[in-house]
Each structure stands twice: as C-alpha cells, then as structure tokens.
Amino acid sequence: MGHRTTKTNHKVKVHKTMSYRVDFFYYAFRNILFVGIPLVIISAFILGFNIPHGSARISSSDNLAISVPSSCTLSSSVDEVHSASIVNGRYEEGIGTTTLSTFCNDKNGYSVYAIGDSLNSEGNNTLVGSNGSNISSGTATSGDTSNWAMKLALKAGDTSTTPPTIISPFDSYSTVPITWTKVATIPSSTTDMEKGSNFTTTYATYISPTQAAGTYLGQVKYLLTHPSAATPTSAYIMQEVAEWEDDLSSPGDSVQAIDIRDGKQYWVTRLADGNIWMTQNLDFDIDTARTYTHDDTDLGWAPNSFDANATWTPDTTKGKYNLPVNGTSVSNWSNQNNYPYSADPGDVYYYTSNSTSDDIKYTSLSNCTSAGHTADECKHYHAGNYYNWTAAIASNNSSALTQQYTNAPNSICPKGWRLPIATNADQSIYEFGELLYQQGIIGAKTSTSYAADSFDNIRKAPLWLARVGVIYSGTLTYVTTVGGYWSSTVANTDISAYYLRFNTSSVFSSNPYDKAHGWPIRCLAR
User: Fold this and answer.
1) How far apart are the C-alpha atoms of 99 and 404, rounded to whole Å?
2) Domain end: 186, 201, 228, which one?
C-alpha cells in the first residue's frame, strides 16, 4: 500500500509585464480494506469404484476459496496545462484541465477531500507572490480584490457505471478550502464499479487592476478515503511514516496521521529519545473477517530476516475480539495467556487531573470539551482499546514465545510501527525507560522513582500517557489510577511479558505482568 503524488506546473502571464504561475499538487493514496470474500467453493465430489465386499468406500473432497481485497486508488493526469495570459482587471476561468481518476472495487464507495497547500502548508489557500504580495482564494468574481477559485466536474464522455457526485459548492468555482473538505463521493452501492470514475478539476482567477506584477505560487491536495472514515485532518498516513518522518525534525514536532485500516487518526510526535511515538492509545478494532498483511500491519519482522508475505487472520475458535466494556464489566473475557483477546470501551477519555488524585473520566468527546478542554487535548487521552499480549503481537497462539527477552516478530500496530522493546538480556535496551529518562520523567532509564514533579509531566504534553486501567478476569480495574502499556518483550516462559506501568508513586519501565491482562498500546515508528 502506498500513495502516489504527481506535480504539475502551471503559468499564467499577466500583461503589464506580470507573470502569474500556479503550481498545483495532487495527493493520492490507496485505501485498501482487504476484505476477504470467498468467491468459489468446490467441494465434496465422490469418486465411485467397484469395491470388493468388506472394503471401505473411497471418497474425496477439494475446496477452493479465493479472497479478493478491496483496492481503491486516486491518480491524476494533466490534460491541458494550467496557463493563461491575463491582463490586469480581467477575469478568466477554465485555466487548464486535470483529470482525477479513481478505481474502487469496494461496494461501500469512497470520498475525495481537498485542501489548499501553498508553501507545503496544509490549510494555506493563498497564491504566494515572489514580490511580497499574495492572492487570496475566493469565488473568482470581479471586484476590487484579486482572487482564485477551483471547480470540479464529471469528465466529458466518462462511461463510469457509478460516477462520483460532485459536492456543492465545488460544482461551480468556489473558494479553495482551508481544512480537509469533501469535494466528491460515491456512496455505498452494489453497482459494478469495475471501470472506475473520472472527473476534472479546473481553476479560475480574477486579477484586479491594482495587482502587482510578479510570480504567484499555490497548491491544492486531493485525498481519497473510505466513506466511513472520519474527516481527515491531515494527509499523513500511518503506514507511510518512512516517507514523512523527516517532517518531524525536532523533538516536540507533531502531526495527526491516518491508519488506513479503519480511517482512525492519531497524534504522533517525535519525542526526546529521537523516536516518533503515538501520543494517544491505539483504538484498533480487530476484524475477524479480514486477513491482515505486511501492506497494512506490522507483520513479517523476525531476527535477521523479513517476510513480506506474512499475514494474520484472527482465529475465532479461541480468540475473542472487541468485547464491550459495560462500566467495569467485560463479559466473555477470560484469563488467556496464549489466545488473543481484545476489548473496546467505546468513546471514553481519561483526562489528567494535574495532581496525585484520580484522573477524570469523560464518556464522550463533547463531555470532555464542555468541561473546558480543547478537542486535541481530549483526543490524547482517549482510552483506545485493551489487548491481551497475544492480541497485541498479532498472534493466534503465543505459547511458543517462552524465552525471556525474546521479542515478538509482529504486532497489531500499523505497518511501519511496532511495539517498544522493554529490555534485553545485557540490559542495554530500555525503550520505555530511555524515553522517560530523556523526557526528564525519571533520573535514570532503570529508575522506578519519578524526578521532581514528573508524575504530572508523564501525563501531559508531549507524552500524554493515560491511566486507563487494566482488564483482568472480566473486570476493568485500577481505572483512573494506574496506567500501563504492553511491550514486545517476553518476561518469563509463557506466563508473562514486560510492560510499562505507572501510578502516583512509582513508574516501572520494564515490569513483568501476566499476558492474560488487557492493557492499551502505544506504537513507535520503525
């Protein structure tokens, strides 16, 4: 899975020795859902023979199952270069034509979003002038102020069986959005989508008589998502971290990134240890009808080797997934060391009280923001899901991992991310401990005591660690008082694995705990 970007250069010349160039950037990614669909079943044909009396009858069966993943793509091609010669005081529309082509064999459809991206800054919809002057975006009508606008339309002659619907007001020349805004969509449909769809984007501008001569640059990004995904706040893709990690060049730099497996978004930050970490809990619901691959999930890693064909199909015979949490009760959760279990508490937030008292529980984002907190602060404290260790390492049976300091080769983190290593045999690695030490939370990477005032700091920016408790024996306990996060590291035989644990008085960066417990997860970039 990946994204393709294309860049087209466009020039508009303005008489009065004015050169006006617009540079548009199209961003696309494939949102592959990998829904396994059994298409063909061949079974139970019987071969008949003349068999002597007393012999067993011979029979045979042969089964074939084919899984077709859902594949969705967005690409662009320039049909007419975006260039025009404009005299000051004039309006011009239809500046160039670019075709945006989609393919999606998912009957659930897709949505396309757009955002201004001038100077590679999402949300900037101005044309930036080399002369110190800019041109803002508008509806491109005449007036006293220069402006520019965008328009989408179905491509002439498109034979799509399910053409996209252009969202108003982008079916006419409209202001380039400053937040990710839906501009086209195909809703859920059982119609054949094999041919894909094509629509075009063009631009218009009005140049006022007082506009200074110069060169003006601007960009627009387009993004394709699954229709059930939340409105994106960025075009950063979790599975593409290797392509944008340099954007987080300094500790404290943060972005929101999208997990293409379900469209959920996470804050991620480069922290003081130099690594990029998720700074909110993984909220991934395990889909038992789906086979996960290296293209979307952290699969295939092993000591001194790599398997790009690694897959994980969650076992439903013994595993249990996304169990609901009702208050403190988790029905059907049992203490399984070696079989996968996960639980989903819903839309719950545990906001720090900034003291040694219990954290504050909010049962919705609106409840959290109504209490005076910003939405971004609240999102960092989302409980996410709980996983026993076997589910956390994307395994159906972890009983083979019994050697202390062994690290599981896989995890349910997105591709390009992994679980932290708690420690190793020669005690040279403490990834949780190193992080806390570099952030000034503890005085040494093996310390179990906080540095001054650091109990508050472990729960605030930039770490945002939350005390969401633990699930054991069907009960959610220690909620609002204890926080913990699984590592990838085996602690003792098949019973325990290491995890980070903290409360008001102590913090353990490599503490052994029963694999049957349900803890949350924070992934870090590979």
Assistant:
1) 56
2) 228
What is the distance between the alpha carbons of residues 70 and 212, in angstroms, rounded to a whole number? 50
Is the domain of 442 the same as that of 357? Answer: yes
My answer on whether 223 and 288 are in the same domain is no
Q: Could you say which of 181, 205, 228 is where a domain stops? A: 228
Residue 170 counted as domain residue:
yes
Which ranges in 326-461 belong to alpha helices (H)?
365-370, 375-380, 389-392, 431-438, 454-458
Of the candidates 70, 85, 102, 150, the one whose C-alpha atom is nearest the C-alpha of residue 4 is 102
Do 172 and 308 belong to one domain?
no
**Rounded to two decimals, what is the model's pTM?**
0.72
The residues, any chain, with a CB within 8 Å of residue 12's CB and separated by 6 or more, are 19, 20, 21, 22, 82, 83, 84, 85, 86, 95, 205, 216
Question: Residue 470 and residue 478: Cα distance in Å, rounded?
Answer: 6
d(CA 429, CA 446): 10
Q: Is residue 157 part of a domain?
A: yes
* The two three-digit tokens of residue 6, written as one number: 């294309």
pLDDT digits (tens, 9 = 90+) for 38-79: 222 222 333 333 344 444 555 666 767 565 656 677 888 888
Residues 288 and 217 in one domain: no
Distance CA 501, CA 516 (A): 16
Provide the domain count of the chain.
2
Could you report how far apart the first and last alpha carbons of the chain are, in Å?
17
- 234 within some domain: no
Helix (H, G, I), strand (E, B), or coil: what is residue 166? strand
Cβ-contact 279, 462 below 8 angstroms:
yes
Is 53 inside any structural domain?
no
For 121-140, what is each residue's pLDDT tens digit? 889 999 988 888 899 999 99
Which residues form the domain of 503? 284-521
Q: Is the dihedral of CA 409, 412, 415, 421 positive or negative?
A: negative
Question: What would the pLDDT profile of 170-206 be if each residue is shown by its tens digit?
Answer: 999 999 999 999 999 887 765 565 667 888 999 999 9
Cβ-contact 39, 68 below 8 angstroms: yes
Kindly state whether residues 288 and 222 are assigned to the same domain. no
Residue 347 in tokens? 């839309």
Same domain assignment for residues 446 and 322: yes
